[in-house]
Specification:
The protein is of the alpha+beta class. The protein contains 13 helices and 9 strands. A 4-stranded antiparallel β-sheet has the order 1-4-8-7, covered by helices on one side. A 3-stranded antiparallel β-sheet has the order 2-3-9, with no helix packed on it. Strands 5-6 form a two-stranded antiparallel sheet. It is globular and about 65 Å long. InterPro entries: SET_dom, SET_dom_sf, SETD3_SETD6_MTase.
């Protein structure tokens, strides 16, 4: 039996139901969900009963007892995944560690160095979180190979859902995680199906109409492409939530006066608005409080374009035959280039407006 059918059969035996969609292998994004008929807004596509999930409450007491109290849920679920693996039918559709190679954590340091600052900061946090969980795991279970734990840890970070129970509430919200079979096969789109949950089950509900054959996605959140890259290893082409942080571009080329101006503009939230998603509302600049020096702002943004050119050249100079992360880095810098150009266009005051 092929792995998808075997998963669905096993999941059905655990009470998971799936209606009007089917997991299917996609180009460049593993498995995703496809509509098998026309779907209406509000259709419940997948129901996963709580008893089919792997959360804090299903980690065996023996495993929890050996690990420190302060171990994250993320770390505990990964430990459970390695020490007490899910059914084969579920594991067989989960990517192997090699298939995580588009996630920057798995890139060589010379490629990681070329990430934009936001993605680099997220990576650092991930490295430190993983390091902390791995240290705990290793002390309690020295026989577990680091690669197995790393794989399990990234299975959790790339597939888990938010779970709120009495027990998870004492953990930070971003760590209230649980694994859900079948529901973890939805790919991400900026706007996607809704996830609703109660004590008994999780439902994935159609957010709009879909035609037969359409890919049906959920939204993992309003994430920028730096976040999607660092956390999941992909970039969206048209991401309504994409942004760039001016701090990501090395400000060493700016004079002290320009740096001060940039800080002032950020405080006024003017640059933040400029660097947000494109809109036709060019009047926004005039609506921001305080005085904006448009000419200076454009000069600074033009310097950013120079920085980006340099970053692209550094990526092109990477030469170890590994195309995947090179392509992702180039795509990301091109997207940031486009965001900066859009900011330049938007910073031009519309005619007739007061130049401040
Ligand atoms: C929750 S899983 C979704 C199912 C996954 N495609 C699979 O084969 O198991 C999340 C992973 O799917 C991939 N993914 C999700 N949405 C994507 C998208 N819009 N474009 C490319 N890859 C995507 C990424 O590899 C991400 O880490």
């Amino acid at each position: 039996m092929d792995p998808i059918h075997s998963l669905l059969e096993w999941a059905a035996s655990k009470g998971v139901s799936i209606r009007g969609i089917q997991p299917q292998t996609k180009t460049n994004c593993g498995i995703g969900m496809t509509a098998t008929k026309n779907l209406k807004k509000g259709d419940v596509l997948v129901t996963v009963p709580t008893r089919a999930m792997r959360g804090l409450d299903t980690v065996p007491a023996a495993i929890r007892a050996k690990l420190p109290q302060e171990m994250s849920i993320h770390g505990l679920l990964a430990a459970d995944f390695v020490l007490n693996p899910p059914a084969d039918s579920w594991v067989k559709v989960i990517p192997t560690i090699d298939e995580f190679n588009s996630i920057p954590f798995f890139w060589p340091p010379e490629a990681q160095k070329l990430l934009p600052g936001t993605a680099k900061r997220l990576l650092k946090k991930q490295q430190s979180n993983f390091g902390r969980d791995w240290e705990h795991l290793q002390s309690a279970y020295p026989h577990v190979p680091s690669e197995d734990y790393m794989h399990a840890w990234f299975v959790v970070s790339s597939r888990a859902f938010y779970q709120e129970t009495q027990q998870t509430l004492v953990y930070p919200w971003h760590d209230r995680l649980a694994l859900l079979p079948v529901a973890d096969l939805f790919n991400h789109a900026s706007v996607g199906c809704k996830v609703s949950y109660c004590a008994e089950s999780y439902d994935i509900v159609a957010d709009r109409e879909y035609g037969k054959g359409d890919e049906v996605c959920t939204s993992y959140g309003e994430h920028s492409n730096d976040f999607l890259l660092a956390e999941y290893g992909f970039l969206l082409q048209n991401n309504a939530n994409d942004r760039f942080d001016p701090d990501d571009l090395i400000s060493s080329r700016l004079s002290l006066e320009e740096t001060a101006l940039l800080k002032q503009m950020k405080t006024l939230a003017a640059l933040d608005q400029l660097c947000g998603p494109a809109t036709s509302d060019e009047g926004r600049v005039e609506n921001t409080p305080g005085a904006i020096d448009h000419v200076r702002l454009q000069k600074i943004l033009a310097k950013f374009l120079e920085e980006i050119k340099g970053c692209r050249q550094n990526v092109l100079a990477l030469d170890d035959g590994k195309e995947r992360y090179r392509t992702l880095l180039l795509q990301r810098w091109d997207q940031i280039d486009e965001l900066v150009r859009r900011a330049i266009r938007m910073s031009i005051p519309s005619s007739g407006s007061e130049s401040t």
